[in-house]
Structures are given as structure tokens and as C-alpha cells.
Design the sequence.
């Protein structure tokens, strides 16, 4: 058949395998990155490694995307380069994971990280339920979004922005540079090429499912930063976040809505994954690592020349910490005296 | 600036129409303040409180809207507010104090409070309001898929490359569904916000073709406009000819048109007519 309709649903296991790979490889890569940038904490990291790994994926995608846009490298070549980067980083990180695991000598200490309260498993069950809801309900919000059309155009023309995704015809006046540099269409196109996945399934189902897990990982980091000494409170925080995301999915702009109905968008990834992780970093005073979030946002979302929400939150938290340390705590001490 | 102020004012009302999670956030902040728990992470409390107030007050909301660039609407300034983090933090502290360090021995006090809190949370959400709309959209998409399959099967045999002109409900999904589809105009014709993604604009003639096509389904008429003095009048034959000149080789017309009218239009288009389930297909 000359014209192959792309909507024909895949009846194989590719999407499920893809979800597992998009969780496993970034998680391994994240462990590798954290091993390099944060040597204070030893051993294998769970949620944080997944978020950092995805920031790494965004970085690699941005590199190949810029090659596609400015050097006119084809999407097929970009996909191969991206796949190569991920394979090398993933394998290297696997070695780091094994090394870290072996260095954690005490078996009790090794197991301690995996012991959780029943509340944690309740949050995990809600998370799984939400993933299944995205998977089986298949409802999406496309207001102000043309990601899928863009990915389909990239795959059809084997190049970045060669045709207008809205009409399929060549651009007459071009597109804004601030939009052109955003990497998500190339990332999704590369994944479609690498795994022979159907674009609709990848963009509307696979990525949102992965992002739900990434979002919970970010909120888990926040819980650990807010309640460093109480595992029960960390897990309760996660359960309440899960409920809030669910009941807050009623309007555009709400994190829950973005996560469940448009999890592939840059704005959603920023709001549900990057900003919570950034807040956890601010609470832990890891200011240098916050630069990763700011850079990742600039690759995902149309910002004020790189000054996006992450930078605002970062500077806002730093300013509030300064004010709080200078005036708030001293005022509290004086009152005690 | 006036427009931005209006957006900020109306945006807040729309933002709180569907659900009241913003109210949960304010309640959580109030609880954290009154209980003194806010001092544990003063910087997070201060930041959240300040940015929440800034997002609600229209004048400061405008400043935030300018920071996030005019590309985004009002609701996106709430990205700057860690709403879920602060609300969940407040609720965790509240439940922690009711259960006394989350010990099950305090269930007589903790369980009813927890249930009440969960009920309040559920009542604050817009349960299923937008779900219905999206279900309808999913059904519409499914129907359009079937139409497009038929079009590509029939017209694809005659034409190497298809350039389609059809009603909005079909064109809306065409580029998502068929990678090599070329369209006379896309979703950005009626979703003006999408024009921010490109410097390309549509000519007046193309906009008139859109007006004509969208008038056909509800009226069943091939003429747009009443022909009164100064009114825009668009005749079907002229429109299909203009579309052919613009490169269109495949037109879907709504079934509400009479068959004789469709045959006349097909002659003007210079092609053949085929009847589909809800549409006439003109191929050139």
C-alpha cells in the first residue's frame, strides 16, 4: 500500500517496552550523573536519579536537535546519534550502579533504602492507577498544542521544520527562533525512529505515562527535603500530592490537568517534574544543581530568553531564604529572649 | 496593557470556576502560619505566600504575565506557585498533628479528620466536568479517522500527492493522522493562538474559503452572504475554482448540500464526485 495511515494501532508490546526503557535508561543515566555531581551521598538513588536522568535525556536531545535545525542533519541520523549517546551513558551508568552497590558493604544498609511505610505503597498504587487511566482512557487536551503534527512532519520529511506542521506545505516566512530551538519534537521523532513506534502512541500515551512516574519522583524528593527525619510523613506527603494531582485535574494550567491530559508538553514537564525537583534542591541548598533545571526548561519551553519559571522559582527561593535567615530567624530568637 | 489587565482579572475568575484547589492552597498556608509549622521551611512558605498573592492581585499578575512572555495566558503564571507542594505540606503537617506522628493508636481522632479532609479535597476538584468534553472529542476523532481512511483510499489511487480542503472538524485532525497530508489551511485558521508558532499568515482569499466552507454545513447553501449592500458574497463555484488554483485536488463537502449543487461544484472544480458516509468527495 502506497499510503500507510499512521494511526493504525500497534498491536505489539512496543509501547510497554518503551515505557520501561524510558524509565530504566534515564534512571541508570541519572545514577551516573549524580555519582559525578554529588559524591556526598553514596549508593544507588531512586526517584532523584530518574529526574536527573531525564534532564540528561533532554540535554542529549537538545544537542541533536540543534544539529538537525542548524546543520540540517536528518532525523534518522539524529535518532542514531541520540540512541548512541543514551546507550553509552546508560552502559557507563550501569557500571557505576554496580560499583556503588558493591561499595555499599552492609546488606542492612543496602536494604534500608527500599523499606517503606504502607503509605508509600498507597501512593505507588495511586500513581499506577493514574498511569493506567492515561493508557486506557486515551483522552488528550490539544489546545494551543501542535506537538504531534510537528513530530509527524519531522518523520515524514526526515528533517526539522522543513514544512509547516499545520498545513504540510513549505514555510513561507519561517518560525520564531525561540520556538525552533526547543527540542521535544526531535526527541519524540528520534524515539519513534529508534523503536519504530507510532507517533500518536508515543506522544499521547508513552511519554505522559513516563512523566507521571517522573513527577512522583520529583515530589518524592520534595517530601524527603521537607521531612528529612520522618519516612511516614514523606510517604503521607506523596499520597496527598497524588490526591491533589487527581482532584486538581479540572482546568488548563493545573499540574494534574497537564500531567493527565497533556503530559508530553514542555510546560507540563516543567511544572510537574522540573519545578518540584528544583524546590527540593532549594530546600537542600544545592543551588548549583538548580542550574540543570533552568537549562532543561530553556530547552523545553518558550521562555524570556532563557529566564523561565525555574529561574524565577530559584531566585525567589534564594531571596526568601536570605530574608528569612536575616530577619525571620533573628526576630524569632529575640521574641524567645 | 488594558488587555493584559483584563486577562489577569478574567483569568483569575476562570481559574477558580472549575475547581477550588487554589482555596485549598490558601487554607494550607493559613494553617501553616497559625500552627507555626511554616518556620520549619520559612523560605518555601514566604515564597509561596508572596507569589500566590502576586498571582491573584491583577496588577502584579500582569507583571508576572509579562515575565512569562505574552505567549502564555493567565493560568500559566500559576506555574510559578508551588501549589501542590505547599498544599500537600500543609495537609501533611495537619494530619501529622491529628494522628500524633502518624501513630495508629490515635485513630479515633485521626480517622474522621482524614476522611473530612479527603472529602473537602474531592469537593474542591472539578470531578468529571471536562472529562465529558474530552470523551466527545475522542469519539469525533474516531469518526474523522474513518473518513480520512476512506479519502486516502479513494483519492490516493488517483493522485500522487493530496492537497485537501474540508470542513474544520476533518482538517482539525488531518495533520495528526496522515503525515503526508497537505492542507489548504490548518488548525491555526480557527485556533489563533497557534499562529504564535509561525510567522506565516493566511491570505484574505484563503480566509474567505474557510468562511464559505464553515457556512455550508449549518445552512446547506452553496452561497455565503445575503448579497445586501456591502455584504461579502462568496459563491460556491468561485470558491472551488479558487481552491483548485491554490493547489487543492481533493475537497470534502458536507452532506447537507443538495446533490445537484455538488455536481455543479464538481464541474467548476473540474473533477469527479463520490459519496461517502457524511460527505461528498470531489477529486481532481
Sequence:
Amino acid at each position: 500500500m502506497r499510503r500507510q495511515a499512521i494511526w493504525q494501532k500497534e498491536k505489539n508490546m512496543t509501547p510497554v517496552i518503551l515505557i520501561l526503557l524510558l524509565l530504566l535508561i534515564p534512571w541508570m543515566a541519572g545514577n551516573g550523573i549524580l555519582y559525578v555531581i554529588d559524591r556526598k551521598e553514596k549508593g544507588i538513588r531512586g526517584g532523584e536519579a530518574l529526574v536527573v536522568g531525564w534532564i540528561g535525556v533532554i540535554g542529549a536531545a537538545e544537542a541533536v536537535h540543534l544539529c538537525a535545525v542548524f546543520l540540517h542533519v536528518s532525523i534518522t541520523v539524529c535518532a542514531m546519534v541520540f540512541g548512541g549517546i543514551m546507550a553509552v551513558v546508560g552502559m557507563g551508568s550501569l557500571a557505576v550502579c554496580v560499583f556503588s552497590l558493591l561499595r555499599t558493604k552492609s546488606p542492612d544498609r543496602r536494604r534500608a533504602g527500599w523499606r517503606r511505610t504502607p503509605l508509600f505503597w498507597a501512593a505507588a498504587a495511586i500513581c499506577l492507577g493514574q498511569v493506567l487511566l492515561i493508557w486506557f482512557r486515551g483522552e488528550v487536551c490539544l489546545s494551543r498544542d501542535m506537538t504531534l503534527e510537528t513530530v509527524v512532519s519531522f518523520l515524514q520529511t526526515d528533517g526539522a521544520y522543513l514544512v509547516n506542521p499545520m498545513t504540510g506545505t513549505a514555510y513561507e516566512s519561517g518560525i520564531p527562533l525561540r520556538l525552533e530551538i526547543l527540542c521535544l519534537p526531535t526527541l519524540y521523532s528520534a524515539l519513534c525512529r529508534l523503536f519504530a513506534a507510532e507517533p500518536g502512541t508515543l506522544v499521547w500515551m508513552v511519554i505522559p505515562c513516563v512523566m507521571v512516574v517522573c513527577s512522583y519522583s520529583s515530589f518524592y524528593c520534595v517530601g524527603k527535603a521537607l521531612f528529612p527525619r520522618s519516612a511516614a510523613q514523606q510517604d503521607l506527603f506523596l499520597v496527598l500530592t497524588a490526591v491533589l494531582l487527581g482532584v486538581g485535574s479540572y482546568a488548563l494550567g493545573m499540574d494534574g490537568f497537564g500531567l493527565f491530559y497533556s503530559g508530553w508538553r514542555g510546560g507540563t514537564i516543567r511544572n510537574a517534574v522540573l519545578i518540584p525537583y528544583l524546590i527540593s534542591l532549594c530546600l537542600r541548598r544545592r543551588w548549583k544543581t538548580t542550574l540543570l533545571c533552568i537549562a532543561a526548561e530553556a530547552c523545553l519551553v518558550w521562555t524570556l530568553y532563557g529566564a523561565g519559571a525555574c529561574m524565577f522559582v530559584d531566585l525567589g527561593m534564594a531571596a526568601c531564604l536570605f530574608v528569612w535567615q536575616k530577619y525571620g530567624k533573628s526576630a524569632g530568637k529575640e521574641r524567645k529572649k | 496593557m488594558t488587555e493584559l489587565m483584563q486577562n489577569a482579572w478574567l483569568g483569575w475568575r476562570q481559574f477558580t470556576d472549575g475547581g477550588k484547589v487554589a482555596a485549598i492552597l490558601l487554607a494550607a498556608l493559613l494553617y501553616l502560619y497559625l500552627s507555626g509549622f511554616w518556620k520549619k521551611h520559612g523560605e518555601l512558605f514566604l515564597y509561596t505566600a508572596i507569589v500566590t498573592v502576586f498571582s491573584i492581585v491583577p496588577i502584579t499578575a500582569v507583571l508576572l504575565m509579562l515575565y512569562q512572555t505574552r505567549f502564555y495566558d493567565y493560568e500559566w503564571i500559576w506555574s510559578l506557585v508551588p501549589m501542590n507542594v505547599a498544599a500537600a505540606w500543609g495537609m501533611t503537617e495537619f494530619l501529622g498533628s491529628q494522628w500524633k506522628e502518624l501513630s495508629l493508636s490515635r485513630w479515633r481522632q485521626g480517622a474522621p479528620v482524614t476522611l473530612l479532609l479527603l472529602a473537602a479535597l474531592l469537593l474542591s476538584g472539578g470531578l468529571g466536568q471536562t472529562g465529558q468534553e474530552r470523551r466527545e472529542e475522542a469519539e469525533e476523532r474516531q469518526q474523522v479517522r474513518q473518513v480520512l481512511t476512506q479519502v486516502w483510499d479513494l483519492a490516493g489511487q488517483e493522485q500522487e500527492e493530496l492537497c485537501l480542503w474540508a470542513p474544520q472538524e476533518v482538517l482539525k485532525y488531518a495533520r495528526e493522522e496522515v503525515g503526508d497530508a497537505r492542507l489548504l489551511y490548518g488548525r491555526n485558521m480557527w485556533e489563533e493562538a497557534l499562529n504564535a508558532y509561525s510567522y506565516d499568515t493566511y491570505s484574505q482569499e484563503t480566509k474567505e474559503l474557510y468562511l464559505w466552507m464553515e457556512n455550508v454545513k449549518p445552512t446547506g447553501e452553496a452561497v455565503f452572504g445575503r448579497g445586501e449592500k456591502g455584504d461579502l458574497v462568496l459563491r460556491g463555484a468561485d470558491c472551488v475554482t479558487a481552491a483548485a488554483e491554490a493547489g487543492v485536488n481533493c475537497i470534502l463537502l458536507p452532506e447537507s448540500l443538495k446533490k445537484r449543487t455538488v455536481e455543479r461544484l464538481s464541474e467548476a472544480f473540474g473533477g469527479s464526485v463520490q459519496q461517502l458516509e457524511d460527505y461528498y468527495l470531489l477529486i481532481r
About this structure: The longest helix of chain B spans residues 129-155. Chain B touches chain A through 84 residues (CB under 8 Å). The two ends of chain B are 50 Å apart (CA to CA).
